[in-house]
Amino acid sequence: MANISLTVNKKQYQIDADPQMPLLWALRDIIGLKGTKFGCGMAQCGACTVHLDGEAVRSCVTLLGRAEGQEIVTIEGISDNTSHPLQKAWIELQVPQCGYCQSGQIMSAAVLLRENPHPTDQDIDEAMMGNLCRCGTYTRIRKAIHRAAEIMNG
Fold it and tell me: What is the pTM of this model?
């Protein structure tokens, strides 16, 4: 066990945990942020996606020791009132079916739109390839990413 300092959604946390613990469990079980989901535990599904210094990472395989001292943003930190363009588009287009994968989908899409504000269908498909949706809402996800880009770009 070690005293680990984390900055999550612009708040400082001091936690006593094993540096080898996956970030996901610190976020959910110690800090209490339940929006980031456990899917597969092997970085294959994307349900646990968070931002680590602005990059989309799988928190189920990102160790606390790696996350210490970096800026972590979870789905709860993307906006405090669902005002992020992706959240607006997701609601407007009623993207989720079961909703389990959606926080990871939004977190991956946020990095895509930051890096490419005018993505094509192919850009979206390639960027989102690692995020699985058991309900198969991929066409709605793609449409919502395009809509969020419209909102962001005026």
Answer: 0.96
Q: Say if CB 50 and CB 107 are below 8 A apart.
A: yes
User: In the beta sheet, which residues pair with residue 55?
Assistant: 52
Architecture of domain 85-152: Orthogonal Bundle (1.10)
Query: How far is it, in rounded angstroms, from Cα 138 to Cα 52?
Result: 25
Q: Where do we find the tokens 């989908």?
A: 105
Reported as half-sphere exposure (CB side, CA atoms, 13 A), residue 118 has a value of: 2
What is the three-class DSSP state of 132? coil
d(CA 8, CA 108): 17
**145 residue type, one letter:** I
2-74: CATH, from 3.90.550.10, 3.10.20.30, 3.50.50.60, 3.30.450.40: 3.10.20.30
Kindly list the domain boundaries of the chain, sorted by start residue: 2-74, 85-152
* DSSP helix, strand, coil percent of the chain (3-state; round to 5): 40, 20, 45
Spatial contact of 144 and 105, defined as CB atoms under 8 Å apart? no
Q: Convert the pLDDT of each residue in 26-56 to its tens digit.
A: 999 999 999 999 999 999 999 999 999 999 9
